[in-house]
Structures are given as structure tokens and as C-alpha cells.
Specification:
Nucleotidyltransferase, domain 5, 2 domains, 5-stranded mixed beta sheet, about 30% helix
Amino acid sequence: MIYLYIDTSSEYLYSALSKDNEVLSFKKSKLEHDLSAYALDEISKMFEDAKLSPDDVDKIIVVDGPGSFTGTRIGITIAKVYAWAKKIKITTTTSLYAMALSSKFDGIHVPIINARRGFVYAAIYDKDMKELLKPQHIEEEKLLKELEKYDNYKYISNDEFDDIDDIEEYDPDLSKIISYTKDNEDLNPHSVNPNYLKLTAAEESKKND
């Protein structure tokens, strides 16, 4: 089985092609505002590096959020169109789960993304990746309160925070992420949508009308 992993939920493109638990080719590119312009080109180059055709892929794993609203939509759109056009299996995972999986810390993992205005996207997993706090949009203060239950934990992030430090930099372990998520439930491509964990600005405005 050949797997294609796509994550555009931040200012980075994280993508890989894997076969039999071996990463054949990968991209870890900081594209920032150029994600929409270059993500597909970078993924195409990855196929060239691996000497594979898009027809060789058996399943796509795409990160459906949380993170950048625009960035997440880019990866989801690429994955959905690809899966539908080629009749390839598709499944999803979260950016927070991928972050926790990639941690080298032997303890409790706290993947965290700055959602601004005192809020974060966060989850808590034990060292065996058992979910202790489901991925959610939460006030930073509430997360800190929740963490009072635990010791020996480590934050994982590429963001900066006012009241949180001692953060392990997120460097995706693409092999491990694919290994842990490749057997997730197969989905209808049309049912795959961004999972923002909060309302968009337009949705918030409509809700308050």
C-alpha cells in the first residue's frame, strides 16, 4: 500500500509518500501565504522524487484541522479532488494528534496552537497516545487549570504564547504519523471537510445577527 499524507493546516506544507512504513519522499516547506500557489507543485515534485505516479497511491491521509482556516481548506481541497477523481481511499486525522505523535518526550503530550485572544487549540494525550482531553478550542487559562491534574507533561508547538514556555518544537515524524493513522476509517471524499473546532468569523457574525 502506498499512502499520501497532506497537512496544510499551518504556514507549512507537511507531506509524504510512504510504502510499507518507509517514507519514500517528503516535503516540509514553510510556504506561509504562498500555500495556495505552491502546495500542489511541491506535492507533484514529491511524486517525481519518489518516481511514482498519482495513480500509484492507494490511500490519502489529510489533516482536517484545527489551525489556519485558509491553509486547512487548501489541503482538504487537494485531497478530496484527488480521492474523488482517482477513486482513492481517503481518511483524516487532526493536526493536534500529529503533533503529539511526533513528540520525543516520554510523558504526557500537550499539542497546542495559538488561536489568539486568549484561546488555543489543544489536546492532552498520555505517553501511549490515549486521549486525556479531546482536541478543542479552549481558553488558555482553562487549559492551564486542566493541566494541574498532571505532572511530567510537555507542550508541542511552533507558536509562541504569553504564559506558556518550555515548548518542544513541532517537527513532524511523518513515518510515525502515517503508521498511526493509515488504518483510520475510510470516508466518502464528499464528507471530508475542515474541522476548525470553532466557528469562522463569518459564522460567528451570522450567529450573532
